[in-house]
Amino acid sequence: MAINFCCSHVKTKIHSPAVSCEGYDLSNLLSNDPLHREKGFLAEGFIKPPVSIFVDFFCYVNISHVLVWTEVGRQKSDGLELYVKTGSAAEKGESSHSSQGHGGESIVRIGSCRLKNESGLMLRKYTYRTEPIVPSNFLVKNFNSSSRFAVQNASSLEIKIYSTANSTVPALKRIEIWGNPSHSCSKEVRKMISDLWNRANSIVDRQPPDIKQADKKLKEEDSKPTSVENENSVPDEFLDPITCEIMAIPMTLPSGKVIDLSTLEKFNDVESTWGRAPCDPFTGISFTKTRFAIPDSALKSRIDQFLVENGHLKQFKGVGRTVGHANLNHSILIGKTSEVELAKKHLSDSSIPSLGISAFKTHNSSSVFKDGISHSQSTSRDHGKESLSGKNENCDSENLNDQNRTNVKRKSCEQAVDTSKKMKTSSFLSLKDHEDMLEDTLDSAIGSVLSGLPSFLKSSAQPSVSKDRDSERHACKECNSVSCLFSLPCEHLLCRSCLVKKSSEKNEHMKCITCKLSFNSGDVKRFHNI
Amino acid sequence: MSSTAPSQRRLQKELMSFLKEPPPGVTVDSDLTGQDLSVWIVHMDGAPGTLYEGEKFQLQFKFGSKYPFDSPEVTFIGGNIPVHPHVYSNGHICLSILTEDWSPALSVQSVCLSIVSMLSSCKEKRRPPDNSFYVKTCNKNPKKTKWWYHDDSV
To answer: Which residue intervals are annotated with compositional bias (Polar residues) in the record (chain A) (predicted)?
Structure first.
């Protein structure tokens, strides 16, 4: 039975003159804690090879093979030399702690290697009967023939790292030294070592089920509240840390914590009853122009996704979902109307021929815009259909596999269909509204723009314009026409044709018909209906 | 257990985390609190090395529907009410975080810890100076009292 002597259970000791990096101590190589063992050994950053590591055995050991893993993360030792310290038979077996000095001891090199792409080295006895399992990507070598007797009676093993790959830090992930207590050891020592090893192994064997049981217990504990509350499945980041509810509008506070907008508002309401300004509930530092809560849209989208996926579950039925559609449409509308207004300004300022063209352009762009809307509408509808059909397909495929799961899934699909239907109709409605509103505003805007055009457009412009209250106010006082208005010094309006008529009738003293105030033709100004 | 009041979910979470990692010397009476989450009974041991070493106290937490935006009503109950300059003989505690300095970011754990530290930092066991007058005239609910926090050192 082979024993791994690189293990603290069999009283092996390890030491090195080199300083090790924090957390990557030499003791990791002997440790039984898988966490520590995973880390391995790393020398401190300033240590350059060669670095020697000594593994001292409790008794003389007949080594059968040695395994050395040389990569820790990206640190790799690629040049290794292994030595064995040996002593004559009788010395150590009887009195294990009395070192006999140099008299009977000698150091023998048992092997060396230069690793290229291999991740470790395996040195073995040429005559070893049962072939040990070689880890993948290992360089396999036999012990030096001259060291044949030394490895049968080793009191300590030295691993010398004489080179590292890419001048990284000397590193050793793991060492395994397999063998048996040497024949030169007394029976008691051999028995003790094998007992220790057996006990250690039984501990190791026992550990996994223990861990599993512990895991189970933990899981049971976790699942208990889940069955009661069905709430633990919600990721903690989706929950408001103050109310422990799923957030509808997550806001990132200056302190970095995320809470729901409603919580923040409630909190600030309470704070105001104490006469305090709105502040971060976690730090109590009040908000300023540069220090305030901002919405966490990324988290919001993750929460929404989670809710859409799990919306069929009971506990999510009451969860509020805020969708900011109305505002979005509004902002687009505003944006567009302002554009129209700009165009209007532009039109009224420019001369007649270009007027027609740019008016035409606005009209065109508006129709394009409408097209865009209907297009996006249809695409969004198609998209919805696609995703729905995709979900249905999912359902079908699942159906073949697992009926129970399918039922759940189908339910979820139906829910999803329902919700998406709702969403679709609502968005459709809002789109329709939006379109109508847009049409109205565009019509009125274009109408008012066209009203400024000369008489050849008058007939077409008038009907639409007459509806417009604003332009009714700005109409000719004589003929009530709204096209091509001029303002008198008394701020009353006359259209061009009436003005021309007047000026041809009375050359010198023209009078406003409303206030009877006389004026000169030089005082008349063009009136822009903006 | 359906969560009707908005504070229920928060209280449930707090109870779970309290049971998981209670402050030193503090235990929650889970039998009593399990039935009604709005009233908690918390057992508190006097911290070793302080004037209250070896004593046992009981705290009662009452949570209103506005919790956690509104502070819980915390009083000492039972036979042994600590003799402390900020604790009245009827169990009311003069502690700013229980009224105006309350923050929803605080929890039962942090309140317990504050009370333990308040007791631990005491140097002389005595009742508040206005104890007899206060106990005669005060409201049952300590939150109705307009406290004057005159001592920041304890």
So the answer is: 370-379, 389-406
Is CATH 3.10.50.40 correct for A474-526?
A: no
Q: Which domain holds residue B91?
A: 7-135
Same fold, A236-316 and A474-526: yes
A contact residues 218-257, partner B, Cβ 8 Å cutoff: 225, 228-229, 231, 241-245
Asked if residue B145 belongs to a domain, the reply is no
The CATH classification number of A3-204 equals 2.60.120.260
Q: Which helix (H) or strand (E) holds A511?
A: strand A510-511
Task: Spell out which chain B residues touch chain A, with contact meaning CB-CB distance below 8 angstroms.
Answer: 1, 3, 6-7, 9-10, 12-13, 16, 66, 68-70, 100, 103-105
CATH number at residue B99: 3.10.110.10
Count of CB pairs separated by less than 8 Å, A with B: 39
Active site residue B112: no
A242–B16 CB contact, under 8 Å: no
Of the partner residues A244, A269, A284, the one whose CB lies closest to the CB of residue B10: A244
Question: Is B144 a member of any domain?
Answer: no
pLDDT tens sequence across A503-524: 777 656 677 778 878 877 777 8
- Residue A271: pLDDT over 50: yes
**What does the block give as tokens for B43?**
């057992």
Q: What is the mean pLDDT of residues B17-24?
A: 86
Q: What distance in Å separates residue A243's CA from the closest CA in chain B?
A: 5
CB spacing of B9 vs A243 below 8 angstroms: yes
A419 pLDDT more than 60 = no
Nearest 5°: CA angle at A341, between A338 and A347? 145
Structure letter (DSSP) for residue A165: G
CB A182 within 8 A of CB A60: yes
Q: Are A168 and A76 in contact (CB under 8 A)?
A: yes
Q: Which CATH number fits domain A236-316: 3.30.40.10, 1.10.1750.10, 3.90.960.10, 3.90.930.12?
A: 3.30.40.10
Going from N- to C-terminal start, the domains of chain A cover 3-204, 236-316, 325-456, 474-526
Query: Which residue out of B94, B112, B122, B138 is catalytically annotated?
Result: B94
Which residues of A fall within a CB distance of 8 Å from B100?
Answer: 274
Query: Is A266 an interface residue toward B (CB < 8 Å)?
Result: yes
Residues of A in contact with B16 (CB under 8 A): 225
pLDDT of A289 reads: 85
**Residue A403, token pair as written in the block:** 């009926």
Q: Is the pLDDT of residue A443 over 50?
A: yes
Poorest-pLDDT segment among A318-322, B46-50, B65-69:
A318-322
DSSP H stretches of helix in A256-324: 261-273, 297-310
Q: Using a CB–CB cutoff of 8 Å, tell me whether A126 touches chain B.
A: no
Q: Which residue has the tokens 């297009």?
A: A375
* C-alpha–C-alpha distance, residues A19 and A1, integer Å: 35
Higher pLDDT, B104 or A476: B104
User: Smallest Cβ distance to B6: which of A229, A243, A282?
Assistant: A243
In chain B, how many domains are there?
A: 1
At residue A203, the pLDDT reads 61
**Type of residue found at A83:** Y
CB-based contact B91:B141 (threshold 8 Å): no
